[in-house]
Amino acid sequence: MAAVVKLTEDIPLTSLFEFMPESKEVLMEYGLKKIIDDGVYDIIVPRLTLKGFMNLMNLPEEKRELLWSKLEELYNKKITEAK
To answer: What's the pLDDT score for residue 24?
Structure first.
């Protein structure tokens, strides 16, 4: 059985994408597309946590909550499938 990753705001984006590849698509809606378009993905993403990403994108509280909700939904689905 694969190791379970704990979902927190302190999770590195690289770990998040490795555990839940579909989370990358969710983050596209919140600014990841701009990081890719600006050509700095390989520089920035390995250094960012989820919280750091939300701060970098200057997400207001309501968008942070919505993003967290979407990620929790994906996470819970992934955990359920793993059982």
So the answer is: 97
